[in-house]
Amino acid sequence: MPDFPLATALAAGPVVLDGGLATELETQGHDLSSALWSARLLHDDPEAVVAAHAAFAAAGAQVATTASYQVSVEGLAAVGLDAAEARRLVVRSVHLAERGTPGAWIAGSVGPYGAALADGSEYTGDYADEVGVDRLRQWHRPRMQWLAEAGADVLACETVPAAAEAEALLEEADMLGMPVWLSLTTVLDGDGVVRTRRGEPAEEVYAMARELDAVVAVGVNCTDPDGVLPAVTAARAAGKPVVVYPNSGERWDAAARRWTGTAGLSPADALAWVDAGARLVGGCCRVGPDAVAALTRALRGARSDEEVASDDGR
């Protein structure tokens, strides 16, 4: 990791996040069709995970997100692995990210409860009310603790579809005292209001993070690029730096387990997000190293222009 915290870097200017780790693994030819998705390779082919991280590092990513998104005790138990193995794989995810991206901040991925169900419910949050905040806290607690103990610099609580799950994650983060970011997956309603996939106003969810020192950023991921700019505005209401890492613009068909539509993550759009207040910027599903490299060039160019303008103004 760098010699200073991620929060310090975000206060100074935009930081480049990586892209879709599973996307890069699929590009390398790996089959991720199982319920464990990319987490399967933590067990079966860890060197592939290192190579995927390295590809994003070469593209300029300053933050590496671990392959722990879909690791859970319950999910691994379904394929015959116990809690001890779950912990071992979570710890391994941090060490593999460190190997693939020396000098980067390591973000321990904390995916939502629905991801472990492998039924698409992470994009609806339908389970949140029934499971409840207390049970969600208990469910998330081991992985968050294991990632912290393994040496992650920050926890990426990501693709969060519902207010109840956001509340659970924030309460656990506050108890743990570990730097975290909270990233919702959102949609725009007919009136242009940014909402969680469960339907709650995102601005109200972000506001839950306002008084928590452990939260270094709030924002949005795993959403359409067209919805990012309104989400940045909603997230800024929390008074925290904003994190954004949308999908490519294609859409996931959970029933058919395939992507549909046309990819199009634009560096020009990313610059507009930064102008609106985003500070941690990258990509999620279907965003590979080439797109991250283009984003890196755009953000570095913007920083260079700011430095020239600053010098001219002296």
Automatic annotation (TrEMBL):
> What does this protein need as cofactor?
Zn(2+)
Q: Which residues bind Zn(2+)?
A: 222, 284-285
Source organism (scientific name): Geodermatophilus siccatus
Keyword Metal-binding: yes or no? yes
Pfam families, per the entry: S-methyl_trans
Q: What is this protein called?
A: Homocysteine S-methyltransferase
Q: Which GO terms describe its molecular function?
A: S-adenosylmethionine-homocysteine S-methyltransferase activity; zinc ion binding
- Judging by the UniProt lineage, the source's domain of life is Bacteria
- Give GO BP annotations, semicolon-separated: methionine biosynthetic process; methylation; S-methylmethionine cycle
Q: Which UniProt keywords apply?
A: Metal-binding, Methyltransferase, Transferase, Zinc
The cofactor note reads: Binds 1 zinc ion per subunit.
User: Is Zinc tagged as a keyword?
Assistant: yes
The record places domain Hcy-binding at 3-299
Q: Which InterPro entries match?
A: BHMT-like (IPR017226), HCY_dom (IPR003726), HCY_dom_sf (IPR036589), Hcy_S-methyltransferase (IPR051486)
